Recover the amino acids of this structure.
C-alpha cells in the first residue's frame, strides 16, 4: 500500500528557522564570551610579565641608583613608559619613594632622626581590553646595603583636604623643582587619609606643588612675581632633617548660571491716523485729515485696529482716545479680544456701551485670558453734514523683563593667592565673559563666594543678591536686571510679616494717566522705570496674602526702594 507524504508548510519553515537562529545566537554569545575571556587572560598575563620585568629591573639596580627621572629620590628609571603587546597598549608607571618605618617612630618622633629608613618601589601596569580598564600592581621594599643614614635632605608632608577639611584620597599631586640638578618633576597620589609624604627631598626653597583631580577644583603654590609680591601659598622650602608641611584644599566643581534681562518697560501702542496702516477693518469709515471719521456721508460706521500682542506681557495699562463728537453725533471706543469681539462688561465695566471719556484703566484684565487686544470704534451721526471723529487712540502695556543677549560681566571669587606691591589682594578666580545670544551663561567654578561687575552697563537687580555662595557640587542660578532705565524710577520690595521676600506678587502702579503692572522677582523686587515726577499708588496682591494698597508714593529721580508688607 502506497503512503502519501506531505512536505513542510511555510509556518513549519519559519518556526524551524527561528529555532535555529536562537540556537546559533546562544552559541555565538558563548563563543564571544570565551574569546573575550581568553583575550582578557592573555592581556593580564602580559601585564603581569611587564610588571615583573620592571620590578626585576629595579631589584637589579644599586640602592643609590634606585630612583626615577624627576623623582625623589632621583634616578634613571622613567616614571611613565608605554609598550604594545599583541596590539594592546600598556602604560607602566614606576614609583620609588623613601619610607619612614614606624618601628623607630615617624617624622619628628623618629628616635634616630632619620626618616629615610628604606625605599619602596611600586610598579603599576594599566591597560584596557574591550572597553574594560584594568591594572596590575607590584610593590617591593628595598633596604640600604648598610645601616640607615640621612640623605642630607628633608621631608615634604602634604595634606590634601576637601572643603570641609576632611582628607581627600586619590588626588593627583605634582611636585616640581627646576632649581635642582637633576630637576624634580614627580607625580604621585594622596593616600586614603589625603596625605603625601616625600622623604629625602633635597634642600631647596623652590618646590612647586600642583594638586588636582578630575571634576574637582585645583590648588597650587605660586611664584613670587612683580605682580604677586607676596604669594600665598608660595613655593615650599625644604631644610636638612626638617619636615615641611603644607595643606591644599580641593573639592567638587560647581556651576553658576547667569541670566541677563533688560528691565520691564511700559510702552504704548498709539495710532494718530496718519493713514490706515494700523487699522484691520473699516466699515463706512475713512482716515482723512489725521482722523478717523465717517465716509461718503454715511450715518454710521465702524473700524477695528490691528491686533496688539506684546511679548513678555506683564499687564495692560491705560486706554486713551481723543474724540470729537458735535451735537447729533456719537463716537465711542470699545476694547475687543483677538477676534474683535468686545470684552463683556463683567470683565471691563462700561465696555458694552463704549467709552467716550478717558483715560480708562485696563489693569484688571488678566493677561493669561487676554494676551491680545483690539480697539473698536463706533461712529454715528443724524446728519450727513456733521460727522464725529477720532484723532488718536492708544493702549499702554508693561512687558519684561526681556532677555538681554551678549552682556559682558566679570566674576571675582573671594579666595586670594597673594598681594601686590600696594598690599592689594590678588584673587584666585577672575572670570571675564558674556552671556550668549539668549542672555544665558553657565560657568563652572570652584566653591567660593563670588561678586559680579558689569563693565559696560549698570546692574539694577541681582536675584539672589551678591555674593553668590557656591558650595561644592552645587548648581546656582541668578537673574540679573541690567541697563540704564529712562526717566524716574521706583523699586518696590514686597515682603511678608517675617521680612521674607514674596516672589510673583502682582504690583499695579497708578497715577493720573498712568498704569503699569509688574510682577516681583523671586527676591520680591519690582522695578518701575520711565516714570514722571508725580505721586503714585501701588496695589499689591499675591496668592495667600491680603491685597494691600500703598498711596502717596512720591517719585522724583532715582527714588529709594519702597517696601510693602503683605499681611
Amino acid at each position: 500500500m502506497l503512503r502519501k507524504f506531505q512536505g513542510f508548510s511555510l509556518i513549519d519553515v519559519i518556526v524551524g528557522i527561528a529555532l535555529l537562529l536562537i540556537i546559533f545566537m546562544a552559541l555565538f554569545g558563548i563563543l564571544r564570551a570565551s574569546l573575550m575571556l581568553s583575550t582578557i587572560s592573555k592581556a593580564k598575563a602580559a601585564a603581569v610579565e611587564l610588571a615583573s620585568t620592571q620590578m626585576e629591573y629595579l631589584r637589579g639596580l644599586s640602592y643609590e641608583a634606585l630612583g626615577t627621572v624627576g623623582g625623589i629620590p632621583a634616578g634613571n628609571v622613567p616614571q611613565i613608559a608605554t609598550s604594545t603587546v599583541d596590539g594592546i597598549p600598556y602604560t607602566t608607571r614606576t614609583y620609588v619613594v623613601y619610607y619612614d618605618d614606624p618601628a623607630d617612630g615617624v617624622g619628628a618622633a623618629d628616635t634616630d632622626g632619620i626618616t629615610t629608613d628604606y625605599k619602596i618601589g611600586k610598579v603599576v601596569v594599566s591597560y584596557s581590553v574591550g572597553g574594560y580598564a584594568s591594572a596590575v600592581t607590584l610593590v617591593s621594599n628595598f633596604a640600604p646595603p648598610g645601616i640607615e643614614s640621612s640623605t642630607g635632605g628633608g621631608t615634604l608632608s602634604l595634606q590634601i583636604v576637601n572643603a570641609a577639611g576632611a582628607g581627600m584620597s586619590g588626588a593627583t599631586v605634582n611636585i616640581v623643582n627646576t632649581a635642582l640638578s637633576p630637576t624634580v618633576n614627580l607625580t604621585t597620589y594622596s593616600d586614603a587619609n589625603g596625605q603625601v609624604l616625600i622623604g629625602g627631598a633635597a634642600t631647596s626653597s623652590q618646590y612647586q606643588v600642583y594638586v588636582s583631580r578630575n571634576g574637582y577644583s585645583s590648588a597650587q603654590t605660586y611664584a613670587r612675581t612683580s605682580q604677586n609680591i607676596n604669594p600665598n601659598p608660595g613655593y615650599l622650602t625644604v631644610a636638612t632633617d626638617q619636615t615641611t608641611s603644607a595643606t591644599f584644599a580641593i573639592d567638587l566643581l560647581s556651576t553658576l548660571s547667569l541670566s541677563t534681562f533688560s528691565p520691564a518697560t511700559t510702552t504704548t501702542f498709539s495710532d494718530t491716523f496718519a493713514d490706515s496702516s494700523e487699522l484691520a477693518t473699516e466699515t463706512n469709515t475713512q482716515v482723512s485729515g489725521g482722523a478717523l471719521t465717517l465716509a461718503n456721508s454715511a450715518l454710521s460706521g465702524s473700524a477695528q485696529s490691528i491686533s496688539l500682542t506684546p511679548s513678555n506681557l506683564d499687564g495692560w495699562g491705560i486706554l486713551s482716545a481723543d474724540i470729537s463728537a458735535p451735537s447729533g453725533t456719537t463716537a465711542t471706543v470699545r476694547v475687543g479680544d483677538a477676534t474683535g469681539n468686545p470684552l463683556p462688561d463683567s470683565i471691563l465695566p462700561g465696555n458694552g456701551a463704549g467709552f467716550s471719556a478717558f483715560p480708562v484703566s485696563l489693569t484688571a484684565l488678566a493677561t493669561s485670558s487676554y494676551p491680545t487686544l483690539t480697539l473698536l470704534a463706533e461712529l454715528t451721526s443724524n446728519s450727513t453734514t456733521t460727522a464725529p471723529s477720532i484723532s488718536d487712540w492708544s493702549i499702554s502695556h508693561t512687558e519684561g523683563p526681556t532677555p538681554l543677549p551678549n552682556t559682558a560681566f566679570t566674576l571675582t571669587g573671594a579666595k586670594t593667592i597673594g598681594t601686590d606691591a600696594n598690599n592689594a589682594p590678588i584673587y584666585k578666580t577672575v572670570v571675564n565673559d558674556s552671556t550668549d545670544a539668549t542672555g544665558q551663561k553657565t560657568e563652572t567654578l570652584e566653591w567660593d563666594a563670588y561678586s559680579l561687575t558689569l563693565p559696560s552697563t549698570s546692574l539694577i537687580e541681582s536675584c539672589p543678591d551678591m555674593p553668590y555662595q557656591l558650595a561644592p557640587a552645587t548648581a546656582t542660578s541668578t537673574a540679573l536686571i541690567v541697563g540704564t532705565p529712562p526717566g524716574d524710577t521706583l523699586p518696590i520690595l514686597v515682603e511678608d510679616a517675617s521680612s521674607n521676600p514674596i516672589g510673583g506678587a502682582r504690583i499695579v502702579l497708578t497715577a493720573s494717566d498712568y498704569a503699569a503692572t509688574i510682577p516681583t522677582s523671586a527676591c520680591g523686587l519690582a522695578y518701575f522705570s520711565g516714570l514722571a515726577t508725580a505721586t503714585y499708588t501701588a496695589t499689591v496682591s499675591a496668592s495667600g496674602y491680603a491685597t494691600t494698597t500703598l498711596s502717596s508714593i512720591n517719585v522724583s529721580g532715582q527714588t529709594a526702594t519702597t517696601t510693602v508688607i503683605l499681611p
